[in-house]
Write a structure and sequence with these properties.
Helix content: over 70%
Structural class: mainly alpha
Shape: rod-shaped
Number of strands: 4
Distance between the termini: 29 Å
Length: 252
């Protein structure tokens, strides 16, 4: 395991390997936690497409019902017109005849208006039928895509769980070879930070919070004889060989 980072103590090197596994574990666990959300999003897209189709079908149904009602209204008025005309034939009074003629005329005008509405509704029905056909196609595509996505998620989920178990087993083996005090400190920091516990000193700055470290801290990190931590974020520091200090003699 030696030689991972030149000049770093063996215990820090071991922890860096563990940290690499932990970072991957955190990443995988976050991705795994996201899967239920992905499933809900897939279902919501399918539901939205289904809802749009059902809404169009309802409009088409109501339009057809309205057209049928108008058709019935026309039939009723035509029946009434036939009765009035029959009465006209039988009546001998001119005044009554004219009154019936007036009723027939009004009824025929109403029929014309109703038939115009029927034509409008027929146009609307045709447009809705085209929209329903297009929306059905969209829904079929959404459902097919949703099925593919669900199958992909199942495979991803299985692969991630398998990798997590493998990483956890590796971590147990790796942790067994680390000094308990180092491991305990590292794990406390990881639980708190949830990203990295060990960071490099980059030009004298903490690789975690980027605070400029005092020369004595850099010096201790360079010697690699003990655990050195950042005064601000508490992360464990290791020397990378890069440092720009105002007083280089402070590191000698």
């Amino acid at each position: 395991m030696a030689g991972i980072v030149e000049g770093v103590s063996p215990e820090i090197e071991k922890l860096l390997v563990i940290q690499d596994r932990d970072k991957r574990l955190i990443q995988l666990e976050h991705q795994l936690a996201r899967i239920p959300v992905e499933r809900v999003e897939i279902e919501e897209r399918a539901k939205a497409a289904t809802s749009r189709l059902e809404e169009l079908k309802l409009k088409a149904k109501l339009t057809e019902a309205e057209r049928k009602q108008l058709e019935n209204d026309v039939g009723s008025k035509r029946t009434q017109i036939d009765k009035w005309r029959s009465q006209q034939v039988l009546t001998k009074k001119n005044e009554e005849y004219q009154a019936l003629a007036h009723e027939v005329s009004n009824a025929e005008k109403e029929i014309f208006k109703i038939e115009d509405k029927e034509l409008d509704l027929m146009d609307r029905s045709e447009k809705l039928a085209a929209e329903i056909k297009a929306e059905q196609k969209v829904l079929d595509e959404v459902n097919a895509q949703a099925q593919r996505q669900k199958e992909t998620i199942v495979k991803r989920e299985s692969a991630m769980k398998e990798e997590i178990e493998k990483l956890k087993a590796e971590r147990v083996t790796l942790a067994a070879g680390v000094d308990e005090s180092y491991l305990s400190r590292y794990e406390r920091i990881m639980r708190h930070r949830q990203d990295v516990a060990i960071v490099p000193l980059q030009h004298g700055n903490c690789g975690g919070c980027h605070l400029q470290m005092p020369p004595q801290v850099v010096h201790l990190a360079k010697r690699s004889e003990e655990m050195v931590t950042c005064e601000q974020c508490g992360r464990i520091l290791y020397w990378t060989g890069e440092y720009e200090a105002a007083s280089p003699t402070a590191l000698r």
